Request: fold
Amino acid sequence: MNLYPSITTLRSFLAYKFSVLRMKALRASLWAKLTGTESTLVLFPKHDPRLSLSRKLLGPKTIHVDQIVGTLNRESDFDQHFRPLKKHTLQRWINAYLMNEQDGWAPITVHKVDGHYFVEDGHHRVSVARYIGMDFIEAKVWEYSTQAKPANVRQLVKCTEKSSTKSYTTAKT
Reply:
């Protein structure tokens, strides 16, 4: 008895591999819901007050695939390991795989915050890279500097109550 499907073309083989990968992602997603854990991609912190308004283009860099943790806009298409969740991503996933085999990829576009990368363009390439076990990928990197706001200066103020042994802190403006 043959436990493996008959594979006639590379595209049908890749479609089978995609389906296996997608089923793993869907099972992991269901398990995460049952256990109350998170399995989705991290969203880019657009409204984080620590991010300065200035960002700078670092240009093409080779980055570690494991440092890519999130997305700007496709959190429902892939899980936290960039495994596909949606069936409609099949053809693009296969095309990304074949493109890597034939000509290689154009660099993906990522945004770097605190040493972590968030994908803007190239989700399918990252998914394929993780599937085939690539350690590094070429990326056009935008970096955000996260500057902590200076802490409020506080000073002790004597309490004006009858018991003057109490002190309170107030923010100095």
Remarks:
- Residues 10-35 form the longest helix (26 residues).
